Amino acid sequence: MEVVPAWAPAVGFTLLPHAGGFLGGKITKKEIPVWYKSLQKPSWCPPNWAFAPVWGTLYTSMGYGSYLVWKELGGFNEKSVVPLGLYAGQLALNWAWTPIFFGAHKVGWGLVTLLLTTGTATATTASWYNINKTAAYLMVPYLAWLTMASALNYRIWKDNRNKKQSE
User: Fold this and answer.
1) Is 7's pLDDT higher than 90?
2) Are 65 and 128 in contact (CB under 8 A)?
């Protein structure tokens, strides 16, 4: 008798990234109406309503990509340590950004976190490419969004760094 249904790992890996997004969303929702609204942002800043569906799509894509890598390598084993370890590292950095930027109002440290996330996500994608090309391609929209988010975080930091931060 099968203990875990065959579909369960695919669902679990796909949903895992959403856990941090859900928790981060609680912090973000509280800070948007006052603190985030008060910040000067560039004209190309996406509207607030766009962030949730974009992140939902990106989390689903990266989560499913991690499942493909896990499956291709035969689960958690010596071969999967680097590609899934890099993935876990970038995911932890991704989840850390919201409490740093929105929770602590540390815009500069948010930028540092985003740049580290982007580097680790790029390394993840490169490590996945020779294992499962589809998994690597599923990371490309995320890398593009991280690039835009880094530029946006930089502009918010640059344009608001002399403004007194409310804690």
Assistant:
1) yes
2) yes
Q: What is the DSSP secondary-structure string of the chain? A: --SS-TTHHHHHHHHHHHHHHHHHHHHHHHHIIIIIHHS---TTPPPHHHHHHHHHHHHHHHHHHHHHHHHHTTSSSGGGHHHHHHHHHHHHHHHHHHIIIIIS--HHHHHHHHHHHHHHHHHHHHHHHTT-HHHHHHHHHHHHHHHHHHHHHHHHHHHHTTSPPP-
Tell me the torsion sign for CA atoms 55, 84, 86, 107.
positive
At 135, the amino acid letter reads A
pTM: 0.93
The two three-digit tokens of residue 27, written as one number: 């912090």
* pLDDT band for position 113 (cuts 50, 70, 90): very high
Nearest to 138 by CA among 84, 66, 76, 77: 66
**Cβ–Cβ < 8 Å for 103, 27:** yes
Minimum mean pLDDT among 20-34, 40-54, 95-109, 153-167: which range? 153-167
